[in-house]
Amino acid sequence: MAFSDHPILIFDGACGTNLQEMSIPDSAWGGCEGCNEILNLHAPEFIIQLHKSMLDAGAMVVETDTFGASSVVLAEYDMQDKVKEINRLAVENARTAIAGRPDKYIAGSVGPGTKLPSLNHISVAELARSTREQVEALLEAGVDCLIIETCQDLLQTKTALISAFEVLESGKLDLPVLASVTIEQQGTMLVGSDIGAVVATLEPFNLLSLGLNCATGPQDMASHVRYLSHHWPKRISVIPNQGLPTIINGETVYPLSPADFATQMHHFVSDFGVSIVGGCCGTSPAHIEALSERLANVISAEREVSQ
């Protein structure tokens, strides 16, 4: 079955917070602590182990460890010349993890970077160049789809999507593209756009899906998912955090148990017609396992979309 033909797609869980739980030696970071993408170079076994743990839990799609593997982000570690190598190795690590597992897929992860054009951190031209470079590397390495995720600025989102589709068109490639925005607790993206503006802006793009990820847990996403259910004509993705994070004794704590996480996600699928799910910050293999079990034999609800 083709990637986009699956009635429900289950993505993996968190990358960073799960890597933090592993006993990764200091030497693996090469002096670049916080740059998870460098592990594709220096400690691929940990990335492969993480992918396999998510697949064992029931994930159908693993995201490459490339969220920050653009030249804009890697330049902060003086590794802007490593874009192609890191993205290639990240795909190879994911491919190693899914080997021998039928109907498992690799999503090329493209994050928002650390500079937003609407806040004049970066020019649109520079952001587009950086995105094209990363997307070209991911496509050359052989991903099954692209996910432009954790989008915080509609100008950044449009720039990334235009760049991705230009690369696909130039290579005469037909690959699914998913877009996922981040809505903060106050109800808008970081730069102030609400979900209605997101839908209106992204409707012209040939997306497989539009959805939400990061920032909050599923409960705080409910009103936005409901809006998408009634106003977005294509597939909807929901990939939340393990609840809204809080700081306890100086540590970030995510509150939702695997069972509670899975129950709230089941509501989105069975009531709002969501058909692409997974976990963001904090979500462990146990959360993905609970989600997979909760959605076994569940059918995504039919939707009536207002034009």
Jot down its keywords.
TIM Barrel; single chain; alpha/beta; 8-stranded parallel sheet; 13% strand; 307 residues; two-stranded antiparallel ribbon
Mean pLDDT: 96
Looking at the structure, what is the overall shape? globular
Q: Percent range for helical residues?
A: 25-40%
Trace the largest sheet across and list its strands. 1-10-7-6-5-4-3-2
CATH topology: TIM Barrel
Question: What is the assigned CATH homologous superfamily?
Answer: Homocysteine-binding-like domain
* CATH architecture label name: Alpha-Beta Barrel
Biggest pleated sheet? 8 strands, parallel
| H-E order | EHHHEHHEHEHEHEHEEEHEH
CATH class: Alpha Beta
Helical run tally:
11
First and last CA, distance: 31 Å
- Class per helix and strand makeup: alpha/beta
Got a strand count?
10
Provide an overview of this structure:
With 307 residues, the protein is an alpha/beta fold. The protein has one domain: Alpha-Beta Barrel (TIM Barrel), CATH 3.20.20.330. The chain is 39% helix and 13% strand. The protein is built from eleven helices and ten strands. The protein has helices at 16-19, 39-42, 44-57, 71-74, 83-98, 124-141, 154-170, 195-202, 222-231, 258-272, 285-294; strands at 9-10, 61-63, 105-110, 145-151, 177-181, 209-213, 235-239, 246-248, 251-253, 276-277. The longest helix has 18 residues, at 124-141. The mean pLDDT is 96.
Helix and strand arrangement:
Layout: E1 9-10, H1 16-19, H2 39-42, H3 44-57, E2 61-63, H4 71-74, H5 83-98, E3 105-110, H6 124-141, E4 145-151, H7 154-170, E5 177-181, H8 195-202, E6 209-213, H9 222-231, E7 235-239, E8 246-248, E9 251-253, H10 258-272, E10 276-277, H11 285-294
Helix pairs in contact: 3-5, 3-11, 5-6, 6-7, 10-11
